[in-house]
Amino acid sequence: MLFTTLGFLVFFALTYLVYWSVPGRAKLYTLLIASIGFYAVWSIPFALHFLAMVGFTYFMVRRLLALPDGRRRNLTLGFTVAVNLTNLFLFKYFYLLLTALHDATDATVFTAKAFNLWLENRIGYPEITLPLAISFYTFQLIAFAVDAHRRQTQTNIEPLKFFVFILAFPQLVAGPILRYPDFYPQLDAATIRPREDYIRKGMFLLLLGLIKKVVIADNMIAPINQIYAAPEEYSAWTHIVAAAAFSCRVFCDFSGYTDVARGIGYLLGFHFPDNFQAPFLRTSLRELWQGWHITLTTWMRDYIYIPLGGNRRSPARNYFNQILTFTLVGAWHGANYTYIMWGFIHGVALALERLFSGWLGLGAKRGADDFSPLDAQAQAPARAFVGRVGRAALALVQGTAVFGVFAVGAIYFNSANLGVAHTIIARIFTLAAGERSPMIDFLLGMIALTLFFNWLQTKRDVKLPPRWLQYVLLTLFGLLTVALLGRYAPGAQDYIYFQF
Amino acid sequence: MDLLKRRFLWIPLLSFAVVFAIDKIFYLPVVQEHTVDWRKIEPLFYSSREHLFRQLIEEQTERRQANLQPGFIFGSSRAGEFDHEYFESRLKNNYTYNFSAPFSCPAYYYYWLDRILAAGVRPAFVLIESDAMTLGADSLEYALKYSFDARFVATHTDLFRRTPANIWEIQGRGFAYSESEDYFLLRAFALYRYPFDPSVVRANNQTILLPPLPGQNAAPLPIPVRAREFRKQVEPIVFMANEIKLGGIPNPLSFQVSPEEMQKDAEMRAARHLANYRQSPTQTLFFLKMARRLAQENIPTLVYSPVVAREFYEQYRRYNILATVQAPMERAVASIERESAGAYVRVVNPNEDPRMTCRAFVDSFHLSGACFPNVTDLLLEALPADLRR
Fold first, then answer.
1. What per-residue confidence (pLDDT) applies to A135?
2. Which candidate from A203, A229, A492 shows the least CB-CB separation from B275?
3. A415: left (phi over 0), alpha (psi -120 to 50) or beta
4. Which DSSP letter does residue B120 get?
5. What pLDDT score does A370 carry?
6. For an interface test with B, which of A120, A199, A260, A468 has the most B Cβ atoms less than 10 Å from its Cβ?
């Protein structure tokens, strides 16, 4: 069920009314039933599969908490993680494995077509369907199990709260990827209280998210896809704008989704962590990643990068850890070489940035376990000679360069295969002549709007008008949103991150 | 019971109710006069089909007594110029209604066929326009906005539908759940159905020169009017045309654009419609349902692949549309005809017929009105002989 549809509007209105009408634990039951229904609208069999995975992990978490430290406990964790990863692998990466085997052996038996034919003949299904939200819920389940193993959770995990923690519909489909401290403690029935400030925040975020998604992101799809469908026909300038525009589209789509998810969370009395903090206004790649899909990158930091040794090992090992972690970030996004390449490029770029940061005078001081640490010197030589204007100019150059690197990486993200991505990159770097897309001005306008939304995320402590006026303004904002959705909604489009 | 104790919990609902109520203002004719683009006549055509249907029902008894049986044309703007008089002059005991509407599609045709049959009207024949365009994924937009009724949509929706690898094997009631949801969203919010655009308000209040319209006193010069008056003036003419021409808009004029312009137009339209072409499971399903129903009722049916400019037909070849859409459609129709004893369902594709010699086009999609007698002759020839004079 998309947040932009009438079905969701009716569903949420009913859930909201029931949820705030019932006492204590009944709220959690309401939320659980609504969430199961929310998922089952997409597929009843996969809803049962999802419930089975949550049930299995809950059972293992209980065992983890009951077992004393030792080998059996470690094996229990290993088994829990392995089952969850196998589930993810089977549905998401099986075709990638086939492609890799086919590329290596050239055997037709390893083609998706041959496998699908076999599957249809034997089981009656034409292909393996990717369950909605599988990457998100797998990570949440694994994180919970690891936290339980680390004894960073309560010892008594209630089944109702655990199921609501994983299934809660606002965050179910595309995050934020919630972890134990983010959400579980809020599920104490006695503490779920309506808060007026949450209601106002929720309304604002919900409307803002819809505008980002429907007005900006969805309207950028057609012109960008047209350019990517025939990359050899377009000029370097068109490709530069399209690459930047695609980055902006992903931001507006996913940040819009997160805003709506958080808004709904607030309306139900919960605070969910933010996933984006002005990533395109950052002056280093490291900072950009600190503001981009925050709940995924912190997950990767805490459950992969640090266990690999973080930056506490040799410099070479640190770079390796960083590149590996980001390659896995890429692979998490999709079972395709292009996503893996996208992650790898960012890992390499971050490692290079770190390598040269001292010389360039970028970034901040290194922490004990910085995810993408930079050996920045507070008094780097380059900075010592520039004044305020110079610093601003430098920040502009740095910001543009950082966004440029991100946009080049995004070319892989949006390309059907590596060949398309390499064609586009080659055309950009050879300043190739070609057709200029008639939609360039439109895309540039959308990029400007995206930067405005990034700037908006830097405004934290804004002085607000009186409460009654806030409600009037929110109602007017609601009317504006309906008018904009009616005018610009080209039909409900799936969120990009729904495929992950 | 927080909802009763904390009044602020009602604010989101109240706020939504206020927005919902204000939105309804945009349904008022006096507001729409300013907010709906004066050039946008598609809603008028769709609403005029309701008028045409009522006319059909009113005339039915009288025509039946005169031993006349109706024929029906279902198509898009590419079938709008079929002339009922031309059909009647070459068919026995016939009068032909034209239910074509701009950007329409098989779901829309099925809607009207369903209503016609439910009203107890038995067609002498049915002509369905169908090609890659009407079966395309974008073809539902206008019909969803301006046609159908809630009952039809609700009873023709599949909550869970699987599209098979061969789209022509699709089964179900009709609309996908998401399409049905879009329909109700469009009905719930006026601003979705009639989006607000300040530049339209400005354009509607500009003065335009309107040529004298039929039925008005002939004036020697174009009449200056407010743009928003245009629709008001055209509306009675469209309804009058319904009454006189039974829904068709025959036009004897012959347009012809230069080959260079036609090529450019064909490429532009192909880039828009064919480059990322997706066949709609919903349209395919309604097309099959309609063909099967007509076959089972033994109603002679022609599936007309509309004549397009050669330049555009070449684009069909370039994008492999003839092999992936046209050919499977022809096979599906042949199969449906075989399934029911006594069925008569045939595909007519004048694009491949050397006798289609009149080839003047308004653009690469639309055949000039002057060439419609040629294409009508080819179609009538494909009908069973006992229907023809």
1. 86
2. A229
3. beta
4. T
5. 46
6. A199
- What percent of chain B has pLDDT above 70? 96
- The first and second tokens of residue A235, run together, are 């000029």
Amino acid at A366: R
What whole-number distance in Å separates Cα of residue A208 and Cα of residue A252? Answer: 10
Asked if A335 and A96 count as a contact pair (C-beta separation under 8 A), the reply is: yes
Using the Cβ of A315 and the Cβ atoms of chain B, whether some distance falls under 8 Å is answered with no
CB pair distance less than 8 Å for B12 and A486:
no
Rounded to two decimals, the ipTM of the complex is: 0.78
Could you give the CA distance from residue A215 to residue A211 in angstroms, rounded to a whole number? 5
Number of Cβ pairs closer than 8 Å across A and B?
92
Between CA A211 and CA A483 the distance in angstroms is 10
Q: Verify whether the Cβ–Cβ distance A487 to B195 is below 8 Å.
A: yes
Encode pLDDT of B276-322 as tens digits. Answer: 899 999 999 999 999 999 999 999 999 999 999 999 999 999 999 99
- pLDDT reported for residue A104: 84
pLDDT tens for each residue of B363-373: 888 898 889 99
Distance from CA of A443 to the nearest CA of B (A): 18
Nearest to B181 among A7, A44, A482 (CB): A7
Q: Is A190 at the interface with chain B, CB within 8 A?
A: no
Contact yes or no for B361/B256 (Cβ under 8 A): yes
Q: Which residue has the tokens 């892989």?
A: A412
Q: How far is B141 from chain A (nearest CA, A)?
A: 9
Q: Cβ contact (<8 Å) for A478 and B182?
A: no
Question: Helix (H, G, I), strand (E, B), or coil: what is residue A151?
Answer: coil
Summarised one tens digit per residue, pLDDT across range A8-22 is 899 999 999 999 999
Q: Cβ of A226 under 8 Å from any chain B Cβ?
A: yes
Does position B120 have pLDDT exceeding 70, yes or no?
yes
Query: pLDDT averaged over chain B?
Result: 89
Q: Hey, what are B124's tokens?
A: 């002498």
Q: Which of A282-291, A292-301, A490-499, B109-118 is predicted with the least confidence, judged by mean pLDDT? A: A490-499
Q: Is A333 a catalytic residue?
A: yes
Q: How far apart are the C-alpha atoms of A410 and A246, rounded to whole Å? A: 7
For residue B13, list chain A residues with Cβ-Cβ distance below 8 A: 13, 16-17
Q: Show residues of chain B in contact with A203, CB under 8 Å.
A: 11-12, 15
Calculate the dihedral angle through the C-alpha atoms of A38, A41, A45, A49, rounding to the nearest 10 degrees. Answer: -20
| Per-residue tokens: A45 | 């069999």
